[in-house]
Write a structure and sequence with these properties.
The protein folds into two domains: 172 residues, Alpha-Beta Complex (Aspartate Aminotransferase, domain 1), CATH 3.90.1150; 255 residues, Aspartate Aminotransferase, domain 2, CATH 3.40.640. The protein contains 15 helices and 16 strands. The chain is globular and about 55 Å long. The two termini are 26 Å apart. Bound molecules: pyridoxal-5'-phosphate. The site of pyridoxal-5'-phosphate has 16 residues, from helix 4.
Amino acid sequence: MTTNQELFDRAQITTPGGVNSPVRAFRSVGGVPRFIKRAQGAYFWDVEDKKYIDCIGSWGPMILGHAHPDVVKAVQRAAENSFSYGAPTEAEILMAEKIVELVPSIEQVRLVSSGTEATMSALRLARGFTGRDLIIKFEGCYHGHADSLLVKAGSGLLTFAEEGIDLATNAPSSGGVPQDLVKHTLVLPFNDLAALQAAFKQFGPQIAALIVEPIAGNMNLVQLSPEFIKAMRELTSQYGSVLIYDEVMTGFRVALGGAQSIHGIRPDLTCLGKVMGGGMPMAAFGGRKDIMGKLAPLGNVYQAGTLSGNPLAVAAGLTTLNLVSQPGFFKTLSTRLTHLLTEMTTLAHAAGHDFATDHIGGMFGIYFAKQKPRSLADVTASDIEKFKRFFHAMLDHGVYLAPSAYEAGFLSITHDERVIEEMLSAAKKAFKKI
Ligand SMILES: Cc1ncc(COP(=O)(O)O)c(C=O)c1O
């Protein structure tokens, strides 16, 4: 028995499913999850000392590569002064100032500890601000696991849907979520302009917020059309609903100013996470000052956190944001990814596969399909079985892709030309094998 298998068996005795977050369990691709021992730059090593090129980067945060020396030093320095105070620090002000500088739609920001907390709090705030209950979300978008958002959510939940949990319209996509709560969540197909217009026509004055992954990364990578983006902004403004860009994944990942800087859109509220914590548990939500002013202690919308603005997380996050702000950072990342995906497509086609890709900044999607998808239905229609075989072939050749066809991939700035050549050499063999 392999050491990974031994650890997985052991983990399942004391931890449900052997993992602390479902997608780590490899349920959607089969096989034994790798237990990681350490990581450096673009690589990680499992407990059997097998080396992998890491293409998930902790599901987004590790844009600088693993254990960047400046981030490690910043965290060590902060740790020497204790791990948490429960009282404010100057570093939290610096962090807020940096976020406000990089994302101009954010006039004020509150730090929290996870993306789930950020979206959950942003929704409560939007409801408190508007005095309305109804929210709009889109099929295949995942916004964390707050109750009212677990309706047709992406990735991890889609894997479980395959195993039989009902994803019928407006049924909760998780057990334990009251139908009573879900009735306040209107789920629309991603990128469907007519459905969006119809929803606002019928329910506009009741809609507190529209929340969207502006570049979806939880049903693989799927981009919105310019017309759809424009309509989301116009309709929410027209009806006084709060437009929430959930940039937990895309923030400081697709561009320095996030997806909103690419879209040329000023959302009312933005949720951030992942990169902004540099791998430490930190996230945020922020936006218009008049809306943020409704938050306690100023307003009557309650939100709090013992570890919010944690000094170690702030040290890691601020150092990370300073490094990604360096000129040319995103151009380099994107140029390398363009090269990788162009070459991969050539190799896939040469081996006779339908294959398409998409990428933006340091985030990418690969699809065993003729064209890149525009909706959850398109992703589902791609050759998922072939993806599973490809995933395992790549893993055998030392490349750790996201273990699900419903997940985007993430490269770091340490995935340089040499690493990319290694990936291409693995892909060439993998495409032949599947
Ligand atoms: C777009 C988006 N929003 C929210 C979340 C939830 O973040 P967390 O896992 O930190 O709670 C995620 C996590 O993958 C995400 O991708």
